[in-house]
């Protein structure tokens, strides 16, 4: 009897133990599965901007790209942190005031992470405006009368730009410390910032036309002056001040305006009343009259300068061969005793005869 009871007891104990073990295993396995699922569910990836969300830089200031960081990780146990490469698009141009958006993207599998930053390029400050005007004043202080009577003087003038070759031309002028005059247009709006660059480097900026369309600007006096003032708005935005100098499209002697008889007579007579001085030229590089090589322009210039004391020279900085020509012409002229001056208030105007 006792033996029987003991056996039963032992069997029950074994059964209990086995049950307990099974329950424990099931519980541990469940906890493991739960932890695994929770761990996986806690997977995250994110992108974070380095630096500020909005950045402001001065006109012509420097933009430092701080970038962004992207990474993935498991939030629950904080394990498995991985960095994800970030692509950056958008490039603020400190020469052009305005708001720029920079987009940072990172790819985590199919998920695209994105962050944005706004960079504001400020317009010209009062200090910058004053500095630009001071530069211009410094280079236009001298007049032709400050030179001896036998001093030969060249006013280099460049029309129709700024364009693709203007920056290179500015480099050439800098190399020889020569100051010139730019009669500007909006033929190539992408190069608008070069107008500010011309002023910054001590050249005179003057109005040509905004549209540079003869069929448009000479339709009426109103059309003409509104085109000139629109160009001067851009000059003011870029250089800090409106220009008092202008050159007619085609010059004062042009006949492209013939479709509107007498318009040039009216315009040339009303220039002063509009607050401008206008300039023609007495020497041409020929760069828009059929000469299409640097060597040809150089020959034209050498022969046209002649014995003239003051030469107002017509060139176009939108012609690559003319810019090439300047590489040779400027050192030749300096070697031959010429001095270069930018147009100033009261400079020689080299007016043409008016034909219309
Ligand atoms: Zn022109």
List keywords for this structure.
356 residues; binds zinc ion; 9 helices; 21% strand; Immunoglobulin-like; six-stranded parallel beta sheet; 2 domains; alpha/beta; 15 strands; TIM Barrel; four-stranded mixed beta sheet
Model description:
This protein has 9 helices and 15 strands. By secondary structure, the chain is an alpha/beta fold. The chain has 2 domains: 78 residues, Immunoglobulins (Immunoglobulin-like, Sandwich), CATH 2.60.40; 215 residues, Alpha-Beta Barrel (TIM Barrel). Strands 8, 9, 10, 13, 14 and 15 form a 6-stranded parallel β-sheet that branches. Strands 2-7-6-5 form a 4-stranded mixed β-sheet, with no helix packed on it. The chain has a 3-stranded antiparallel β-sheet with strand order 1-3-4. Strand 8, helix 3 and strand 9 form a beta-alpha-beta unit. The termini are far apart. The site of zinc ion has 5 residues, from loops.
Task: Determine the mean pLDDT.
Answer: 93
What Rg do the Cα atoms give?
37 Å
Total number of beta strands? 15
Count of the domains? 2
Task: Note the gap between the termini.
Answer: 143 Å
Find the CATH superfamily of the largest domain.
Glycoside hydrolase/deacetylase
The CATH C-level name of the largest domain is Alpha Beta
Principal-axis shape equals rod-shaped
Helix content: 25-40%
Largest sheet: 6 strands, parallel
Range of strand content: 15-25%
Give every kind of bound small molecule, once each: zinc ion
Based on secondary structure, the structural category is: alpha/beta
CATH architecture classification of the largest domain: Alpha-Beta Barrel
For this structure, the CATH topology of the largest domain is TIM Barrel
């Amino acid at each position: 009897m006792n033996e029987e009871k003991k056996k039963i007891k032992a069997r029950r104990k074994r059964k209990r133990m086995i049950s307990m073990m099974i329950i424990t295993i099931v519980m541990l396995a469940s906890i493991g599965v739960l932890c695994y699922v929770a761990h996986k569910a806690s997977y995250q990836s994110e992108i974070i901007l380095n630096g500020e969300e909005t950045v402001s830089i001065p006109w012509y200031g420097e933009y430092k790209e701080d970038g962004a960081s992207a990474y993935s990780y498991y939030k629950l146990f904080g394990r498995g942190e991985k960095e994800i490469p970030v692509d950056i698009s958008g490039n603020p141009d400190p020469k052009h005031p305005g708001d720029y958006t920079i987009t940072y993207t990172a790819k985590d599998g199919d998920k695209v992470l994105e962050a944005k930053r706004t960079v504001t390029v400020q317009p010209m400050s009062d200090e910058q405006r004053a500095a630009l005007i001071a530069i211009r004043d410094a280079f236009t202080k001298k007049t032709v009368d400050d030179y001896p009577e036998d001093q030969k003087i060249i006013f280099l003038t460049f029309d129709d730009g700024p364009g693709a070759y203007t920056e290179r031309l500015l480099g050439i002028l800098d190399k020889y410390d020569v100051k010139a005059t730019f009669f500007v247009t909006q033929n190539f709006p992408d190069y608008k910032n070069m107008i500010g660059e011309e002023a910054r480097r001590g050249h005179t900026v003057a109005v040509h036309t905004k549209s540079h369309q003869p069929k448009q600007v000479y339709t009426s006096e109103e059309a003409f002056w509104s085109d000139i003032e629109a160009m001067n708005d851009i000059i003011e935005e870029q250089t800090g001040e409106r220009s008092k100098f202008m050159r007619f499209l085609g010059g004062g002697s042009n006949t492209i305006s013939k479709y509107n008889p007498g318009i040039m007579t009216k315009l040339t007579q009303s220039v002063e009343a509009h607050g401008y001085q206008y300039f023609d030229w007495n020497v041409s590089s020929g760069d828009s009259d059929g000469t299409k090589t640097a060597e040809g322009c150089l020959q034209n210039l050498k022969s046209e300068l002649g014995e003239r004391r003051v030469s107002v020279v017509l060139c176009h900085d939108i012609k690559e061969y003319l810019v090439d020509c300047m590489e040779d012409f400027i050192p030749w002229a300096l070697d031959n005793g010429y001095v270069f001056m930018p147009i100033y208030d009261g400079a020689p105007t080299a007016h043409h005869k008016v034909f219309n």
